[in-house]
Design brief:
heterotrimer, A mainly alpha (299), B alpha+beta (172), C alpha/beta (212), B: 172 residues, alpha+beta, Beta Polymerase, domain 2, 5 helices, 26% strand, C: 212 residues, alpha/beta, Rossmann fold, three-stranded parallel β-sheet, two-stranded antiparallel sheet, 14% strand
């Protein structure tokens, strides 16, 4: 561990943040074009963040209310920093270590827990509804995800993401999605829930419970959440690319692969309407769970 | 219709259409007539309960419009009550929703229905202090000008006069 | 005022009487603050961002709410101007008061407006907000919105078409970029005057004087 690693980590965060923001804008632009609209400008997410930080007043409901967005952002950044972004790179290898797969799984859950504390302190009923839905949904898709991840870990006999990526090198026939399809399917289905897009967007549910957990957050606090909304999906995309699609050895490969992976929840989201939270839990605990168990048994 | 005439002290019956007639009855007998219509004549559905302000006669006219879904006929029971002592027996024991109508009438016309649930609670207006606004001697224009800061320079025309002047300027 | 909001004495679980004032417990009664614009260069950049990221509060107060919906459709597509809809007043920066306001709605509008964060802008839609429109002599609708909260842009018409709404948004953008969109500070400076006007017509005042 050296000091320059901190600089490298900041560089990774910076690049991934920008990539996440542009990805957000571009995907919304594509969605608008599909709907025959001109759509937002691709740099609109940047303006929104600047505007939120430029708000002059902020109200608070207490200490946890301040800390919650920080927790959320920690979840995103932690997920990003403990796995290799670019395989084989000194600069973007980050803090990958022997047991990082377990830590990364934990960081998936970390953010929503932090939000739960903050949203509870805000005292808004819609926040509480959003949080309860969010926690139950995260818990339910965590099962197939963990089973899939365990299957992958058993397949490669390691808990280190760098080694998992290394084992997949040498052509797409070595990728986990080919060598271990059941685990890959279980994880990809769980990925739909993790991305929080339709049909599993009942957590935010912009039309029924205004916006779920962040209902009370405003100004700079919302800005932090928006930063996380850029980093977290990008980090999750990189995680799944590392685990299932052989990682990336340069930025161009990373952008191509993650963009294509992102299209998977986007396509599913355009086709299917929203599940209620009980429906989505019940669904996650049937088909994906069974696939996950099959993956574990077959290993 | 005839047995109503014999049994109740009816003031007036108007047959407006084949399936719509209006019965005017004294205040004391109205509720028993409505109960009779509901229980024995099949007028089981209350369409509406509304009031008309006859300022010149110093009377409020309450209309209970009842519907018989089997023979598809409506009967309106009209009751005239005095404006000075605007009180009427409640009918919420017949239909629960009457209580809501009565709350509205209490607020908008100031007609009291003793015994009706929540009749004193504000219905639409929150904290209204003036005269009940649907009474005809309440001057809404004056009230609005006094209360709501009218923007100076606004002109208003009588629509009939204005259109006549615009479309047929020659006619007198 | 509702019973629940009244000041009263209750017996605590330990058996001691305590006095509670729900309005004080749940809300703040501090006056709004005036936030002076900072460094002109930074403020100019911030104003550019504010003008290009107008988050509209999705609160339809009158018939004009119907005119706001088509803006999201492919035909008008307000998103390309940086206009988006937000479901909560905390996150919104533009309040479109869409049409006539009854006294009862005004109460909610005042509360919502006060919950929005500085800087905030108000677009008043339709004749009803300007001089009462066709409800000018009604016993229960207000005549002039600017007596109760600062208004940045008025859009005349009954109802204005979505095109004029878009023109109004463009006008608001130039106002913000020129640094004249200081409605929130005006509200804080003339707070007593606005409050007196609001209290004159809202008789059933069951909320604190200021809801942040």
């Amino acid at each position: 561990m050296e000091f320059k690693n901190i600089g490298y980590a900041l560089l990774t965060i910076f690049i991934v943040l920008n990539y996440g923001l542009i990805l957000q804008g571009v995907v919304r632009k594509i969605g608008a074009r599909v709907g025959r609209r001109y759509g937002i400008r691709w740099y609109q997410p940047y303006i929104d963040i600047i505007k939120n930080y430029a708000k002059r007043s902020t109200i608070t409901h207490g200490v946890m209310f301040y800390i919650a967005p920080v927790f959320r952002l920690t979840g995103g950044i932690g997920l990003l920093l403990f796995m290799p972004v670019i395989f084989g790179s000194d600069i973007f290898g980050n803090f990958s270590f022997a047991g990082d797969l377990v830590l990364v799984l934990y960081f998936q859950f970390f953010g929503i827990l932090g939000m739960a504390l903050g949203a509870a302190e805000s005292g808004h009923p819609y926040s509480a509804i959003g949080i309860s839905r969010g926690l139950s949904q995260v818990t339910s898709f965590e099962l197939p995800l963990t089973l899939g991840v365990l299957a992958v870990a058993m397949q490669y006999q390691t808990l280190n993401i760098t080694e998992i990526v290394a084992a997949q090198q040498g052509g797409f026939m070595n990728w986990t999605i080919i060598t271990n399809p059941f685990a890959a399917i279980a994880m990809l289905i769980a990925f739909l829930g993790a991305m929080g897009r339709s049909p599993f967007d009942v957590v935010l549910a912009p039309q029924e419970i205004p916006i779920g957990p962040p209902t009370e957050f405003q100004s700079g606090l919302l800005g932090v959440l928006q930063l996380n909304r850029a980093i977290f999906p990008a980090a999750k995309l990189i995680l799944f690319m590392n685990l299932l699609f052989g990682g990336a050895t340069n930025w161009a490969e990373l952008i191509l692969k993650t963009f294509l992976i992102y299209m998977w929840p986007v396509f599913v989201g355009t086709v299917f309407p929203r599940f209620r939270v009980d429906q989505s839990i019940r669904w996650f605990l049937t088909v994906p769970l069974i696939i996950g168990i099959i993956a574990i048994i077959l290993i | 219709m005839n047995d109503i005439k014999t049994q109740f002290d009816i003031t007036e019956i108007i047959e407006q259409r084949k399936n719509l007639s209006f019965i005017t009855i004294a205040k004391e007998h109205a509720i028993s007539l409505i109960t009779y219509l509901r229980d024995y004549k099949g007028f089981s559905h209350l369409v509406l309960l509304t009031a008309v302000d006859w300022l010149e006669d110093n009377k409020f006219q309450l209309t209970y419009l009842l519907n018989n879904p089997d023979i598809k006929t409506d009967i309106g029971v009209r009751v005239k009550i005095s404006r000075d002592d605007a009180t009427m027996q409640t009918a919420h024991q017949l239909w629960e929703q009457v209580a809501t109508y009565q709350r509205e009438l209490k607020e908008m016309f100031g007609i009291d229905f003793p015994g009706s649930p929540d009749v004193d609670k504000p219905f639409i207006l929150e904290g209204w202090e003036d005269k009940p606004p649907y009474r005809r001697d309440f001057d809404t224009k004056q009230y609005s000008e006094d209360t709501y800061f009218p923007r100076p320079g606004r002109e208003s025309n009588d629509p009939a006069e204005y259109m006549k002047k615009k479309l047929y300027p020659d006619e007198k | 005022m509702k019973e629940d909001f009244k000041k009263r004495t209750v017996i605590s679980p330990e058996g001691k009487p305590i006095e509670i004032d729900p309005l004080k417990d749940y809300f703040s009664d501090a006056k709004p603050k005036v936030y002076k614009p900072g460094n002109p260069v930074i403020e100019k950049f911030a104003n550019w961002a504010r003008a290009n990221s107008l988050w509209v509060l999705g609160f339809g107060t009158g018939c004009g709410a119907i005119e706001m919906r088509p803006l999201m459709t492919p035909r008008f597509d307000a998103y390309r101007y940086g206009i988006q809809w937000r479901p909560t007043p905390r996150q919104a920066s533009v309040f479109v008061v869409s049409g006539y306001l009854s006294v009862k709605t005004l109460k909610r509008v005042v509360r919502t407006y006060e919950q929005m964060q500085n800087p905030k802008f108000v677009i008043a839609l339709g004749s009803c907000t300007i001089n009462g429109g066709m409800y000018w002599d009604s016993y229960n609708t207000i005549n002039r919105l600017d007596q109760y909260m600062p208004v940045d842009v008025y859009i005349a018409g009954c109802m204005p078409r979505p095109e004029s709404l878009l023109a109004g948004f463009e006008k608001l953008k130039t106002i913000i970029k020129e640094g004249r969109g200081e409605g929130a500070n005006t509200y804080a400076e003339k707070f007593d005057w606005y409050k007196a006007n609001q209290k004159k017509i809202i008789k059933d005042w069951d909320m604190p004087d200021y809801n942040w």
